C-alpha cells in the first residue's frame, strides 16, 4: 500500500478544456498528452468538445492539440500546466476563420 501511494500521481488541481468550432466548415481535432489519447473528433459549425484532467504535483502536465480544417493544419500546446496555471482552470478555445483563440 505504501508503494502504491508513493508511485501514484499527486493531483494539484483539475482543469476543464473546451473547444468550439465557429467556422462554417468542419474542424478535425486531435488531443493527446503523455498519458491520455482523446481520439480524433470532427466538430461541425457550432459544435464543441470538452474534457477535464488532473494537473500533477510537478505541474508538468501537457496537452497538445492538432486542428485540421479547410485552410490548413496547426498543432500546438493547448494546455501547459506551468504556463496556464494562472490563466485558467476552465480553458476555452474557439476555432475561427483566421486562427484558434484561447480565452
Automatic annotation (TrEMBL):
Its main location: secreted. InterPro entries: Self-incomp_S1. The keyword Signal applies. It is found in: Secreted. Keywords: Secreted, Self-incompatibility, Signal. Belongs to the plant self-incompatibility (S1) protein family. PANTHER family: PLANT SELF-INCOMPATIBILITY PROTEIN S1 FAMILY, PTHR31232. This is S-protein homolog. It comes from Cephalotus follicularis.
